[in-house]
Amino acid sequence: MNEQSPDRTEGDINLSECRRKWQDRTLNEQTRDLLFRDEQVFLRQSLSTPCLTVLEACNGSYLQDLQGKQYLDFHGNSAHQVGYGHPKVLEAVEEEMHRLSFCPRRFTNLPAIELAEKLVDLAPGDLSKLLLCPAGTVANGIALKLARLCTGRFKTISFWDAFHGASLDAISIGGEALFRNNMGPLLPGCIQIPAPGSHAMGEEPLGWEEVLSYTEFVMKREGDVAAFIAEPLRCTTVEIPPVPFWKGMRELCDRHDALLIFDEIPICLGRTGYWFTCEHYGVVPDILCIGKGLGGGVLPLAATLVRDGLDQGAAQAIGHYTHEKSTLGCAAALAALHVIEDQQLVERSRIKGKEILSRLQEFAESQNGVVEARGLGLMIGVEMATADVAERVLYSCLEHGLSFKISGGTTLTLTPPLTISDEEIEKAISILCTSIIKTLESDYAS
Ligand SMILES: Cc1ncc(COP(=O)(O)O)c(C=O)c1O
What we know:
Blueprint lengths: L16 H10 L2 H13 L13 E5 L2 E4 L4 E4 L13 H13 L10 H13 L4 E7 L2 H16 L3 E5 L8 H6 L3 H4 L9 E4 L14 H15 L2 E6 L12 H13 L3 E5 L14 H4 L5 E4 L11 E6 L19 H16 L2 H22 L3 E7 L2 E6 L2 H13 L2 E2 L1 E3 L3 E4 L7 H24 L1
Parallel strand pairs: 3-13, 5-6, 5-7, 7-8, 8-9
Antiparallel strand pairs: 1-2, 2-3, 4-10, 9-10, 11-12, 12-15, 14-15
Bound molecules: pyridoxal-5'-phosphate.
């Protein structure tokens, strides 16, 4: 993959004409100068440098750029369940910073123990042990190592177009050309299959029964698959498999002695209207990876939760990360979990998500250029007819103070903080719908 042919699966691209025009219209000299300095020192890479603009503050549902412009943030890298700079989270981090600012490995600490106890308490089924680590990618890497250790097998099945992180092991199970191309040999035994709803076989979306049958075929033919790993709900394009699909996959994994690993890194902790998305499916995986918002939108933290019986690596180094039991990360996480509980944000996500979705679905039906709106909780996707329109809608929304990302080229991916107020919801819907209408009108006019 090169700069001339960007892959649009994971996000909107940073070298587009649309972005350049937006920057020409919007940015002042000081911002341009900083973007230039950024590009001089950071490696350029797709999805980030060169960057969109320069931020200087964030608070609640808003980001603020250097020019004082505020953006309602419906992206947040899916890390802002409790909004930005939540006072309870900041207070907890500040207190811990003055008490135990770092915990070297070999030692443990109270925030880490309390967080681990809280997470296994919240987690469904028998997910009763965990490891903490500094990134979602790493949590998935731990899951892969544990799957190998506990099954004595190394093969995995995952979805084409999936994203599970940017490291070599994560891109081996991932399926995005943007990350895999030009990387040479990846991990052996990583088998990708098309996801239900994908258009891998032509115009018609693949049915979930077909995908299950094909998975069974692969499991039988290989005979020694260690694990099936996937997001229960694709967070970028908001593809939501039906409940029987994951129930069927759970049975399939059990029949073939393979572990079921769910990557819920961007969709855990209330995002979809459940503490964990697997609860929507009534399915408990053997391993559950979470991250992003776990750090309260302040610090990096992720976790690999496993069921009883997978605690088999006592004589092996599995995690071993410098910031494994980060006191500050754990303090932030504990505070964020309490905020989610105290403010009933899981329920709020479910209720507000339903309301927003039904309004966007009604709107989608009234607009020819909008294919559909779909979602679960405050994880909502609005699919536009073309990538060009999607991109112009994004830059129009940014101009009017609403930020989100585009996935798969055509899906506007909307992930507001779960703390978002009713007024902010109204404002976001108004900016979004007006931008879509205006963009489609200018399309017809030209
Ligand atoms: C589904 C999924 N898995 C894993 C990751 C990697 O998480 P991190 O960026 O914290 O390493 C991401 C990040 O976007 C993700 O969306």
